[in-house]
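Summary of Year 1 activities. Much of the first year was spent building the evaluation harness for sequence design. The harness presents a backbone, in tokenized form, and records the residue chosen at every position. We chose the following record to illustrate the format because it has been used consistently in internal testing since the harness was completed.
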């Protein structure tokens, strides 16, 4: 019988849903409907019914992943308020993740950044707050196309400010995003509060075995963004869902390539954050709990040629910032 894998337990004891709704690049005029659809689809999913019937003290909720950089927190906040007022969902039935942007790394700016996020989301806390990138920029800088805005990051002091947010209860868990094994290790060496999550690119065409093993050994949950390779993002030229091995497995199991990619992530031991605003696609993405990929086919997926899609090139410059090459940004994990 297939394991549902509806959640993963963090080092805080909280249960993070195994499948989230990613909101990056979602159009502002549809994000509200997408949030409402996500709540509806999750509440009717088999995993929600099963997990919440087992342990009502640790309810599993809809996971909405956002960030200040996505520019949609106000719209999500409006949508959440409507759902609360209609009685459709309660705050404890949601898992909300947001992220600290690169312009707010100064320790004194970190709490202010979270306060703005909470105001926009119309919430008193987030379930998870992440340092979005190991990159810092001048306060107030806009966009990615001005390298002179890049500055020298001080991740350790930024992390200490994040720990205070955890102490306050306004961020129920804290973590990082886009951190290499080395950069995560640097934080772990000095952390009073261990990062709960490292959210990174992860899919069958970029499996990150070294980082996976390190996170597992250190009790840090790996969460995979772009689990489908961001097929709607033309600039990445993603071919993840077209991979012949992935499609062979999908055909044998009678599933879509997207479902295989998502189920692969769960069986690897990490949560996944597919991006979609359509209810039908959400239903497909959540239909991955009552079946599994057999060991022989799972092994075939490990043979897929590897290539990182998100390289972080806007954060690399010969003069400005901390990183002169993409290899430096990722400490060779490229």
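For this record, the design step produced the sequence shown next.
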């Amino acid at each position: 019988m297939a394991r549902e894998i509806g959640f993963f337990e963090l080092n805080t004891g909280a249960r993070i849903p195994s499948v989230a709704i990613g909101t990056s690049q979602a159009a502002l005029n549809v994000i509200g409907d997408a949030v409402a659809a996500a709540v509806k689809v999750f509440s009717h999913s088999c995993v929600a019914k099963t997990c919440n019937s087992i342990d009502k003290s640790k309810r599993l909720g809809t996971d909405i992943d956002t960030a200040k950089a996505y520019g949609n927190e106000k719209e999500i906040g409006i949508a959440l308020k409507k759902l609360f007022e209609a009685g459709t969902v309660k705050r404890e039935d949601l898992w909300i993740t947001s992220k600290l942007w690169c312009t707010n790394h100064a320790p004194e700016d970190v709490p202010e950044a979270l306060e703005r996020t909470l105001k926009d989301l119309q919430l008193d806390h987030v379930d998870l707050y992440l340092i979005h990138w190991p990159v810092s920029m001048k306060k107030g800088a806009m966009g990615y196309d001005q390298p002179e805005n890049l500055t020298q990051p001080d991740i350790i002091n930024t992390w200490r400010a994040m720990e205070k947010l955890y102490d306050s209860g306004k961020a129920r868990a804290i973590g990082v995003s886009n951190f290499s094994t080395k950069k995560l290790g640097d934080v772990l060496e000095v952390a009073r509060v261990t990062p709960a999550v490292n959210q990174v690119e992860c899919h069958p065409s970029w499996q990150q075995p070294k980082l996976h093993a390190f996170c597992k050994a250190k009790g840090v949950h790996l969460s995979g963004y772009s689990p489908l390779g961001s097929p709607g993002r033309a600039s990445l030229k993603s071919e993840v869902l077209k991979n012949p091995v992935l499609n062979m497995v999908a055909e044998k199991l009678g599933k879509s390539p997207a479902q295989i990619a998502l189920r692969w992530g769960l069986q690897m031991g990490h949560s996944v954050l597919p991006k979609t605003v359509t209810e039908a696609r959400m239903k497909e993405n959540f239909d991955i709990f009552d079946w599994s990929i057999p060991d022989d086919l799972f092994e075939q997926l490990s043979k897929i040629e590897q290539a990182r899609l998100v390289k972080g090139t806007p954060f690399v410059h010969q003069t400005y910032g901390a990183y002169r090459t993409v290899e430096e940004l990722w400490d060779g994990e490229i």
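The mean pLDDT is 92. Quantitative recovery figures across the full test set are reported in Table 2.
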